[in-house]
Structures are given as structure tokens and as C-alpha cells.
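Table S2 (text version). Query chain:
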Amino acid sequence: MLAHRFGFRAARQAAVVPALGASRSFGASACRRDATGAPKNDGDAALLASIKAGLKDAMRSKDSVTSTVLRSVLSDHQYTTLSTSPTSLSSILQKGISKRTEAATQFRSASRADLAEQEEREAEILAKFLPQQLSLDEVEAAVRTALDKLKHEGKVDLANAKKALGSLIKETNASVDKSRTSGKVVSEVCSKVLASL
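Corresponding C-alpha cell output:
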């Protein structure tokens, strides 16, 4: 009797799962649509394909660490595509790198070199999928260009430091490729540039 019930349940799930899988797959078919119903091009398609290829290679070579890290990135990406404010894949990678770097630092301060090395290895795996990062000089040049633009348009009030910093960060973020630098770096450089005025 029990075997019959479990067999029926398995058959019922087998009939339902393919239908769900077709509508909730990873990749371009699951992309969000704009108000007109056309798919949005989030600019992450090449990066997503690269991560999926890396996952396949890791699975073929039985590299469990790499496959686990890349699966977590794909899971985070899938979760954000279903949310109301999707996050770009490059920012998911950057957050993953910074989270693992901070964890490695904490593990080293707690004399756990083994766990720190594991976190650093995972950060290196994620870093392979990001484009080459901007140097601090390049970020500073972008910040100074954004500041000049804001001054020219009269959109920055240097007397109000907080407001000026917010305007400068916003303008800089609009002009730099977010996959090549983090928001934290932009914020730090903006603060440094405003302090030097």
C-alpha cells in the first residue's frame, strides 16, 4: 500500500516538474520584461554564459569547491531576477568577493589559516569572472571628471559636504563600468577628492 502511494506521488511529481522547469530556468529565457513586454537586456548575458561554462568545466573535472561557488552565484542571480529590484551579475560577484575577503581576514585574526585559505580560494574563483578592475588612479580620474561636470552644470554645492558627496558618487557611478570597480572604492575616492579641495 505504501509503495503504491509513493509510486503515485513520484509519478505525479514527474508530470509537474518538467512544466515548472521550463518556466523557471536559468539564463536569458528567465530575463525580466519591461513595460512593453519586450525582454530587458541586462548586459550580463556574456558573463552568465561564462559562469555556466565554468560550472560545467568544474563539474566535469570534479572540482567541488569551484562548482559550489559558481552554483551559489547562479542561485543569487536567479533570486535577484525574480525580485522587484534585480542586481547585476557583476555586483553579485563583487559582493561575493568582498564577503569572502572579509571572512578570510577575520579567520586569520582568529588563527584559522585553513579556513582563511578556503575563503581566499573562493574569492579567487569569483575574481576570474570579473573583467580587469580599474586602478585607483583611473577611478580618481573618473571622479574628477564627474566633479568638473557637476561644477559646470551647477549641480554641486561644495558648502554642504554630505550633499556634495552624494551628488558626486551618483554622477561617478553613472559614468564608470560597475563591473570594473566597487561602490565602496568609488565612495572612498569621492571622499578623498572632496577632502582635498
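Notes on Table S2: Residues 136-195 form one domain. The two ends are 81 Å apart (CA to CA).
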